[in-house]
Amino acid sequence: MSSDLYRSEIYVGWVRLFPMTVVDLRAETRAFGRARLRELALDAARDVVLTRGWAAVRMGAIATAIGISRQSLHAEFGTKDDLGNALIMRETAEFFEGMQALLAEHPGDLAGGVAAAAQYMVSIARGNPLLETILTRTPGNSGDISLLSLLTVRGEPLIENAIESFGAWVGGQWPSADPGDVRVMVESVVRLCLSHILTPTKSPEDVAADLAVVACRCLGLPDPAH
Fold it and tell me: Distance between CA 34 and CA 57 in Å, rounded?
């Protein structure tokens, strides 16, 4: 019998989950290896961006750092700009996942959800020069302007993603709220949050408290208790 036709069964305790062929196992191993390679390459690129700027990123150096050929790195990502876009997507995906998780922890609680999400957004962005540059389209604390051209040409407007994500949560929690009021509130909160990232004159806690009040008043809800 061909080894490729051999079927093994995976168990957790005494429960059989599903049969898996050797071909399946090989494909799964390749997929895992590819995903691991991408993460290593993005980690290496991120380190260079934070220490020396995007202009200093070299595909050959990244490939050497993770132990593969330059050709293999290009085959996985494409161009250097494609690598940069993948880095931006990973950084922002983690950011939005964190924001959405905090909102989900506050069902029916506008003030609590806004405060938690705003504090997270401001704190994370201020502590992450790369994310700060991506969100604000400015050099940020790192002073690196080399990434800005990539963001301008290829990057998606992340503020629109934040508005859409936050708006979806609000719409799901308060479906009877006036759509116009919701739009004004969501855009105001997101843009004010971005402003506080750009100009850090208040602590994340104070920003969160202020934006919770703004959100509640826009939708005609009681001010949050202090």
Answer: 21
pLDDT confidence of residue 21 = 72
3-state SS assignment for residue 10 = strand
pLDDT at 78: 93
Say what the pTM is.
0.73
Are 126 and 140 in contact, with CB atoms under 8 Å apart? no
In a 3-state reduction of DSSP, which class is residue 8?
strand
Domains of the chain: 16-78 (1.10.10), 79-226 (1.10.357)
Q: State the angle between helix axes of 59-66 and 80-104 in degrees (0 to 180), rounded to the nearest 10.
A: 70
The mean per-residue pLDDT over the stretch 99-120 comes to 95
CA distances from 26 to 7, 18, 49, 73, 165 (A): 13, 16, 35, 21, 37
Q: How many CA atoms lie within 13 A of 148 on its CB side?
A: 11
Residue 155 pLDDT > 50: no
The Cα angle at residue 134 between residues 132 and 138, in degrees rounded to 5: 70
